Amino acid sequence: MNCLYCQERLPLLKRMQGWRYCSEEHAQQDLEEFGRAALVALSVATSSQTEDTRVAPGMAQAG
User: Fold this and answer.
1) H-assigned helices in 1-63
2) Euclidean distance between CA atoms 50 and 54, whole angstroms
3) Phi-psi sector, 30: left (phi>0), alpha (psi -120 to 50), beta
4) Phi, psi torsion values for 2, nearest 5 degrees
5) Are 10 and 3 in contact (CB under 8 A)?
6) What are phi and psi of 25, to 5 degrees?
7) How far apart are the C-alpha atoms of 10 and 46, rounded to whole Å?
8) What is the pLDDT of residues 1-56, one digit of tens each?
9) 3: which residues sit within 8 A by CB, 6+ positions away?
10) Alpha-carbon distance 13 to 17, whole Å?
11) CB distance 29 to 5 below 8 Å
């Protein structure tokens, strides 16, 4: 198994212990990058949703 961050091969002991990263630093960096990517995706989805629900001027429906 390889480190999910740098793709270096994990030492046997770390693999046996269930590690997915070669160091705590790589685990933290990967988590931070994932968080940033998630925020960008959420921002894009939210802005896209907002644009879809806007009503063009003069196109408002009468109640």
Assistant:
1) 12-16, 24-53
2) 6
3) alpha
4) -110, 155
5) yes
6) -60, -45
7) 38
8) 999 999 999 999 999 999 999 999 999 999 999 999 999 999 888 877 666 555 55
9) 9, 10, 20, 21, 22, 23, 26
10) 6
11) yes
Q: 9 - beta bridge partners?
A: 2
For residue 30, give both structure tokens.
């990967």
Specify the residue for token string 């390889």: 2
Report how far apart, in Å, the C-alpha atoms of 43 and of each of 1, 15, 32, 52, 54 are: 33, 36, 16, 14, 17
Asked if pLDDT for residue 62 goes beyond 70, the answer is no
Where residue 61 falls among pLDDT bands split at 50, 70, 90? low
